[in-house]
Amino acid sequence: MVRVGGLTYTCTPGEKMGGRISEMRLRGKPIEAGKTYKVAGWAPVAEEASRAGNKPVWELVEQWLKGQQGGRVKARKINTPKLMGVQGNPGIA
To answer: Can you tell me whether residue 49 is helix, strand or coil?
Structure first.
């Protein structure tokens, strides 16, 4: 699951495919299954995305950073997913 700013969710790795991700929220509001959302990432997940003429994300980040007033960026909360069913798993501890 790709991490996305403002998105929170619960992940239960032991569940079957299609049932591992639950409680998805964007800025505190539940994700709507029929709605389309735009996200940004460090690498395209579809081959056609790299050919679409879009700018690489690092260029967009540079542009955003240059536009911040006073040259400072406020710290943001890291959105770590809530993990279920992994107690005692040495690979996650």
So the answer is: helix
